[in-house]
Amino acid sequence: MGAGVVTAGAARPLFGIYLFLAALWTGTLLFFALGAGIVLRMSPTRADGGTVNRALLDVVDVASLAAVGALFALAVGLDRARPWGPTARGLTLRLLAIAAVAAFVSLYLVTPEMVSLRQKAGAAFDLLPAGDPVRRAWGRLHGLSSLTLVVRLLCGTAVFFLGFSQAGKEAATPPPAVTAPPDSVS
To answer: N or C terminus: fewer CB in 10 A for the chain?
Structure first.
């Protein structure tokens, strides 16, 4: 057996780790999505709330990339130990790729552009009318940022349930029988 190959016996605890990580990642995304509005309402100013949410979003984006990488490695290793159904395997890997792209777009494209627009407008940003081009551009970027978060939430939820379906298959499959080597008569 080559190094790095997951054995059938090691698959069960790895499924637990996989499911825990998928649930933790999805829960973190949901917690941020629900908490961002609270942060904005409780902050002394919207700018302060935006600063806090931006810092948290950066952490959530990096954590998403790390979780996707770990889940990808676990899914591939688990599939080698006990092959997943082709639909579950293909869909899981595609969903993880989509989530990685969404996190990358949020972290490296959308959020920096939002920060740049806010800095260009300066302290008067919150006073800009809704029809102002800078305010409208920022609003579009905020919508895109929210979309990347929702996409990751949906991907994380689906990845969890796909893994859960395969873990159920793993639990229902009895381990391979171990046979003793034949007695040698010499």
So the answer is: C
